[in-house]
Amino acid sequence: MQVHKYDVVIVGAGGAGMRAAIESGQRARTAVLTKLYPTRSHTGAAQGGMCAALANVEEDNWEWHTFDTVKGGDYIVDQDAAEVMAKEAIDAVLDLEKMGLPFNRTPEGKIDQRRFGGHTRDHGKAAVRRACYAADRTGHMILQTLYQNCVKHNVEFYNEYYVLDLLMVEEEAFREDGTAYQQKRVAGVVSYDLATGELHVFQAKSVIFASGGAGKVFKTTSNAHTLTGDGMGIAFRSGLPLEDMEFFQFHPTGLAGLGILLTEGARGEGAILRNSDGERFMERYAPTIKDLAPRDIVARAMANEVREGRGCGPNKDYVLLDLTHLEPEHIESKLPDITEFARTYLGVEPFTDPVPVYPTAHYAMGGVPTNIETEVLQDNDTVIPGLYAAGETACVSVHGANRLGTNSLLDINVFGRRAGIAAAKYAQDADFVELPENPDALVTAQLEGLLSSTGTENVAALRKTLQDTMDAKVQVFRDEKSLTEALEVIEDLRKRYKNVSIQDKGKRFNLDLLEAVELGFLLDLAEVMTTAALHRKESRGGHYREDYPNRDDENFMIHSMAYRDHNATTEGISGIRLETKPVVVTRYQPMERKY
Amino acid sequence: MSTELPEPPSKIELKAGVGGGGEIPTFNITLRVRRYLPETTAEAYWEDFKLTMYGTDRVLDALHKVKWDHDGSLSFRRSCAHGVCGSDAMRINGRNRLACKTLLKDLDTSKPITVEAIKGLPLEKDLIVDMEPFFQSYREIMPFLITKGHEPTKERIQSAEERAVFDDTTKCILCAACTSSCPVFWTDGQYFGPAAIVNAHRFIFDSRDEAGDMRLEILNDKEGVWRCRTTFNCSEACPRGIQVTKAIAEVKQAILSRTV
Fold first, then answer.
1. Domains of chain B by range and CATH?
2. Which residues form the Fumarate reductase/succinate dehydrogenase flavoprotein-like C-terminal domain (chain A) (predicted)?
3. Do domains A254-359 and A440-582 have the same CATH topology?
4. pLDDT, tens digit, for every residue of A397-428?
């Protein structure tokens, strides 16, 4: 085991991690640990754009953007955080342009903007052009630009170092009212070098978690194979809460059967959805902005069309994304990648034929709770000194019950930057926290257990059962029965997981071992998501309960906070404690959500 | 700028059989993988796996099937699985391609499908190579925007035409399919290689950048663009459809004329 010492350690090298690194790296000695190579991160798969009220092509302002974000999140967004994001969005886009990002341009040479779901003029009057974009590879250009600037600033990367544990110490502290509590402090992280199989402990004054999402809980997902919720899982196992995990976004337009993302920007450029009758069905569900309604509404409409028998194809199990009325030249210049995906993976020519699509698991609105300074919370209001989180791993909460399209690229830039600055500033004044004795003990035991296991269970088989179950039962539509059934399967899988074994016993690039570890995180997170979904007896944003079809502000206008607690039982699941946290409301009182 | 379009009709007649359909066919393949497990055997060897696959499956799905159902030690990098992250460049039937973007049905499945690691970079295990020399060349061409003078308050102005000049080379995902398909790179690992030149092109031809001369000087080196023998392997290998050889030619031309 080697020990390294840095002021700031960043876990994850996607958009949030690298945006943080650009700030932190210029202020403090910084290391970035990633289980991939930085340019492989899934930020690069984002397509459509990044919203900011630049008003380059039509009237717009950040207050409208704030409102849209709050309403889009079905009012469970923390409004102070949404305001920070919408305000800082403008500089976030301009910063990227100055770093070199090749945005598409207007005839005047300014950054061009296009329409996107749920982004509106003057509080919902009509769709507005707010999304700044680079064709349909905006995420690719953001990831490349941030990596380029990390190269420029000589940021130190540890590639293919998989972080497996967060090291914290606890000390007795006292609240203002004199009551004692255990204050957590961050000491560092433990990582596994994939190339050699060696453990490396990184002692750090500040740690930023920016390790992305957990979409691989599901089978049909736009997410990469590597998005296994490691950061959220580590935090949860370390006794930190996870906020709002019941809210998972299904993106309306995944390639049918495959889940590969086709950007909402397609609809922003004029594409529409049709059912088997050739009907533009979104006119019925969202009369004002139709196909540009927020994702939860569109995904539900699609699923409803299919279950009412108006699905397309031999099994009537998808709808169609129709671009055929658009000029091929327009499609080619604005949406070259997604049209190629349709051709490559489904053999459909989007210029002449509509493309089969169905909702695909896309984004975790919930995550590790932070305040607007990106400081991680160990409960509703106690900050853990030196620990930060940003991006999909975190929940600040700007996305509430349903994230608006483009707001994730915005989130990683705004809060990634904030995390980098805050973590470096903290490190300048703080001392190192002493590492616990045998800092790698937990990870060593975990890995040795897996390597030496002679159990009969197979990682891939358990993962497949989990993903099939989540796809079937924790979907766009859910109810008590489906969620309870899902939890029964998950509990069984968690038991069986203790008996998994792997075939590769080597030290070099043991990706067999890696997948076994990842499955452990997936199982933990699936359990939390489903338990929280069962507990929230209302419908809000991406969480739609058929047995409770209405929003219930009286009882559920609150964040959920799930803790690992071996003495607690929630919804029949032992080991999880669910608490609540108030929503920050500043300007906007909850209203009925219509589009 | 987005053009204003008329509203599409609320209802249309769909063509018969729209969206394709029918049962997805299955077929049998032999996947012939070049294995290298340095902890157990000194030499690389070929291993065959007989698999039943579906019509929509890609080479990556076949590799996963081996790893998940047959041999967990088979090692390869992958992440996004739809051709944008650049993790899974490999030699498939002797040609550099992304495993996640190569559909099995498009290959000749009557013969074994061969899969091996990309060439020219140190082999680590099975299909995994050491990417560090590749990224080192990339870093050497200063792959970031360099400007002089004060930063503008708002964005830098760039016309759509100026933006279009380097559009093709912004697509690069750094998968190394081009560089590791280049015969010059195989014999001379010091050569910058096509990917680094593509990324230099992306900045040399960006109207906002002011360090074109420095980059051209770097690529005028004996290990620079002049090593390119215009074999077009790189253009054929690029999974993003970048016209790599054309980009290299434009850089050569710019060095000669110093018009940038």
1. 26-129 (3.10.20.30), 131-146+162-257 (1.10.1060.10)
2. 463-595
3. no
4. 999 999 999 999 999 999 999 999 999 999 99
- A530, A217 in Cβ contact below 8 A? no
Taking CB atoms and an 8 Å cutoff, what residues of chain A touch B13? Answer: 278
Determine which of A98, A223, A253 to mutate to test the interface with B (most B C-beta atoms within 10 Å). A98
Judged by CB atoms closer than 8 Å, whether chains meet at B1 and A112 is answered as: yes
Q: By C-alpha distance, which of A306, A221, A277, A263 is closest to A50?
A: A263
Closest CA in chain B for residue A461: B68
Percent of chain B with pLDDT over 70: 95
CATH architecture of A440-582: Up-down Bundle (1.20)
A34 assigned ligand-binding residue: yes
Whether B135 sits inside 8 A of A37 (CB atoms) is: yes
**Sequence ranges of the domains in chain A:** 254-359, 440-582
Tens digits of residue pLDDT in A497-525:
999 999 999 999 999 999 999 999 999 99
What pLDDT sits at residue B188?
A: 87
Residue type, B11: K
- Across the range A435-459, mean pLDDT stands at 97
State whether B14 and A320 contact (CB < 8 Å). Answer: yes
Is A408 among the annotated ligand-binding positions? yes
- B65: CB partners within 8 A, 6+ apart: B49, B51, B53
Reply yes or no on whether the pLDDT at B260 is more than 50. no
* pLDDT number for residue B1: 42
Q: Which residues of A are catalytic?
A: 295
Which among B155, B198, B208 is the top mutation candidate for probing chain A, defined by the most A β-carbons within 10 Å of its own β-carbon?
A: B155
Tokens of B14: 């769909």
Q: Do B73 and A102 touch (CB under 8 A)?
A: no
Closest-approach residue (CA) in chain B for A516: B72
> pLDDT category, A445, cuts 50, 70, 90?
very high
Q: Cα dist. A577→A371, A420, A558, A562 in Å?
A: 21, 31, 16, 6
Please say if the pLDDT value at position A5 is more than 60.
Answer: yes
- Residue A409: strand pairing partners: none
pLDDT one-digit tens code per residue, A218-274? 999 999 999 999 999 999 999 999 999 999 999 999 999 999 999 999 999 999 999
* Coil/strand/helix, residue B22: coil
For residue B18, is pLDDT > 80? no
CB A417 within 8 A of CB A36: no
DSSP A348-370: --TTTSPEEEEEEEEEES-BEEB
For residues A154-182, average pLDDT: 96
pLDDT in tens, B19-44: 555 667 899 999 999 999 999 999 99
Q: Are strands A355-364 and A319-322 parallel, antiparallel or unpaired?
A: antiparallel
Question: Which residues are CB-neighbours of B87 under 8 A, at least 6 positions away?
Answer: A36, A37, A40, B77, B78, B79, B80, B175
**CB-based contact A37 B87, cutoff 8 Å:** yes
For tokens 């943080």, name the residue.
Answer: A20
Q: Which amino acid is at B99?
A: A
CA dihedral A342, A348, A349, A352 (to 10 degrees): -130
Mean pLDDT of A434-462: 97
Element (H, E) at B213: helix B212-219
For A328-348, what is each residue's pLDDT tens digit?
A: 999 999 999 999 999 999 999
CATH architecture designation of domain A254-359 = Alpha-Beta Complex (3.90)
CA distance B21 to chain A (A): 6
Chain B CB contacts of A93 below 8 Å: 155
Of residues B72, B158, B170, nearest to A105 (C-beta): B158
Single-letter amino acid code for the residue at A21: A
A404: nearest Cα among A483, A297, A487, A493:
A297
